[in-house]
Amino acid sequence: MKVIKSVQLALTVFAASCVSLAASAQDNTLLGAGSTFVNPLFSKMFSQYTASKVNYQSIGSGAGIAQLTAKTVDFGDSDAPMNDDQTKKIGAPVLHIPMTSGAVVITYNLPGVNATLNLSGKDIADIYLGKITNWNSAEIKATNKGVNLPDMPIVVVHRSDGSGTSFIFTDYLTKVNADWAAKVGKASAVNWPTGLGGKGSEGVAGLVKQTPGAICYIELAYAVQNKMPFASIQNKSGKFIAPTLEATTLASNVEIPADSKVSITNTDNPKGYPIASFTWALIYKEQNYGGRSKERATELLKLLWWNIHQGQVDCAPLNYAQLSKSAVKVAEKILKSATYDGKAIL
Fold first, then answer.
1. Residue from 249, 308, 252, 279 nearest 96 by CA
2. N or C, which end of the chain has less CB nearby within 10 Å?
3. Would you state the torsion angle of the CA atoms of residues 41, 47, 52, 58, taken in this order, to the nearest 10 degrees?
4. CB 119 within 8 A of CB 241
5. CATH architecture label of 104-252
């Protein structure tokens, strides 16, 4: 019964968001939906943008792609590039425009423990596989010498919705733990071996705060805003790295391919934080669809152009990394490829 009620509630929320988005479309508000990972930044950006109104629904990357597919929004946002199934279902070329990069952190609720924990990727994966089940296990003690770890069961928390943050997290675990790669893999929604599910970054953050012994992965901005502790993570060089802005920027300072689809988890940079990712705004390459006007398409392109230029000043104060110069150049070229009736908009 609980599962049925949860599904019914999710459908109700989704339907309500569609209604509100449809209403916004009638007053020429630009409509977006998707990633909760980027929501703190988008909330700030869109409050500063004055050329048009923007209504962004923080409903998860998977749901954002679903709304873009249904053509109920002007743009989606996802922390994972669209997969083959999503691309096939949408049935038209979709552009991926990088907006920023950010860190996914491992947060926890350990009463009486004030130290910052050190965790390896292998141990995190083993926790989520159900192999490591107690906070004072030998594996966690080995990377936290001198910390008085409690004899307390680990309560695993994960996202229950299709989530780009889950994709980033599982992409990382797949690279650092062969057992995880073989049994679970990477995706926006996976078959979690164990744990409690929460909807959205807000939902899992709330679960961790109210559950002693809990552990979860969330976007850095949510951890900071909610004053939640987070671990330093061992990177490929064997160093335990805190998810600072500098460390996230070092992880994202890579060569960006022409389509911008690149994974930056488990970075080779010895000072880089290993659980980081870009997030992408998603739009149809051909903007003349569903009765859209050229004016509306132009306003959308202007908004995204502003995001990758003037809007970048909002990144650092909210613990996101600004796009590198090379990433901005790639994003500009992608935006310039958007068309209306086959002709470039910008």
1. 279
2. N
3. 50
4. no
5. 3-Layer(aba) Sandwich (3.40)
3-state secondary structure of 57: strand
Q: Is-contact 45 32, C-beta < 8 A?
A: no
DSSP state of 272: S
> Torsion angle of alpha carbons 2, 153, 132, 113, nearest 10°?
120
Rounded Cα gap, residues 230 and 242, in angstroms: 8
Asked if 2-102+277-344 and 104-252 have one fold, the answer is yes
Question: What does the block give as tokens for 221?
Answer: 């901005």
Tokens (6 digits) for 301: 């392109």
The predicted-structure confidence for 234-275, as pLDDT tens digits, reads as follows 999 999 999 999 999 999 989 999 999 999 999 999 999 999
Q: What Å distances lie between residue 156 and 107, 111, 153, 220, CA to CA?
A: 11, 16, 9, 18
Its pTM stands at 0.87
pLDDT of 42-59, one tens digit each? 999 999 999 999 999 999
Q: What is the C-alpha separation between 315 and 310, in angstroms, rounded? A: 10
* Of residues 33, 38, 7, the one with CA closest to residue 20: 33
Quick check: 17 and 33 in contact, CB under 8 A? yes
CATH number of 2-102+277-344: 3.40.190.10
E strand map for 88-229: 94-108, 118-119, 155-159, 196-198, 214-219
Q: Which residues contact 8 (CB under 8 A, 6 or more apart)?
A: none
Measured from the Cβ of residue 193, the count of other Cβ atoms closer than 10 Å reads 14
